[in-house]
Amino acid sequence: MVRAVPGTHGEILAAAARQFTVTGYRGTSLQDIAREVGCSKATVLYHFANKEALLAELMAPAIDVLRDLDDRLAGLTGAAAQEVAAQGFVDLAVRFRREIAVLRGEFPELLCQPAFAHIQQISDRLRDALAGHSERPGARIAALVLLAGISEACGEFADITDDDLRSALLTLVRRAVEPVDAPLPQPPTTEDKDS
Amino acid sequence: MVRAVPGTHGEILAAAARQFTVTGYRGTSLQDIAREVGCSKATVLYHFANKEALLAELMAPAIDVLRDLDDRLAGLTGAAAQEVAAQGFVDLAVRFRREIAVLRGEFPELLCQPAFAHIQQISDRLRDALAGHSERPGARIAALVLLAGISEACGEFADITDDDLRSALLTLVRRAVEPVDAPLPQPPTTEDKDS
DNA sequence: TCAGTGTCTGACCGATCGGTCAGGCATGCT
DNA sequence: AGCATGCCTGACCGATCGGTCAGACACTGA
Fold this sequence. Notes:
The structure is a homodimer.
Chain A: H1 8-23, H2 30-37, H3 41-47, H4 51-73, H5 78-95, H6 97-102, H7 107-110, H8 119-130, H9 137-153, H10 162-176
Helix pairs in contact in A: 1-2, 2-3, 4-5, 4-8, 5-8, 5-10
Chain B binds a DNA duplex through helix 3.
């Protein structure tokens, strides 16, 4: 969420979040943001070094959580990795659905920016985990479709509560993911998903 | 330097398709396209009324198939609609994966253009059909995630054949879609694309 | 030979973009 | 009073965008 900071800095951030979710990052000009806040474009650039810095500050909380999920996935394999990836990503997507909607479709271009240097690798690892680290095309395809689809879609259900959306998405992922047929190399430390 | 080739129109179209898939519609300038073709920007605008017309001609075949699918869905309900929607959309997504990749993320903005006026309604009906015309949030969410995810992802599997991608996606959709509890009113009499 | 036609181009246009800069204004400290 | 600091602004910049236009060039049929 956009932190509710009083003052111009927070107002700019909030306005940018609103505009970005409607017209996208590229489709929103600094002029647009300034107009909504009621200040000049120069004021926006006084509070933020440039447009990219504005986006980076907006996305920082979501990126932190994504990095945390990546850490938790390290070393996990098979069904355990699948379950952690599913729960972690669904939770992240629901909590930060507005922030994710900002990136709608502009992910590839935005990933080139320095502030988002490692996101691509993290999301690749996330996709691999969701596929149970399987090389089967079906597993890879399902994982990518789910990640992309959830990212794309979760911003469109503003009328659904976080809890409802989370449980619906988690149900969907568990049903859609290709099960890992290979037995777990190590017993899962967390609770099994069907016991 | 200037090649009086009668195929310039097609060359421009092909170059535009390549550029759009790499950098998107908005991210590709007429200058970029002209440079790849080896002509001037004015030549591009001699063959196409404007940038939008270029995109429209590029997308026309895919849109025709989408419209055809929409016609076939008219009147169908429940599981029959689900199955036709699933097969039809997966087939469309695979066959036109390059064209769909062009729209990557720019769908909302592009839908505002006159050439794509009815696409939004068609895709809404497609989503409803895939949800089995159910009002349950879970069904609506699953349908949207699948449609968005397939659209987003199908362009990224250039190394997978059409047949393999199609069967993998169809398996995924059938597994992921919420089943309609109402019995089939009729066995699916799916007559495929008529020639 | 010449007018007509289709193809193509450089020069140019207004609009908009992200970003810079010098300076105005209020406030508060010394 | 004098000065520093933080916040804000209008004016401006170079770059790039989609699009226009008059005219150059090659080819054609009469």
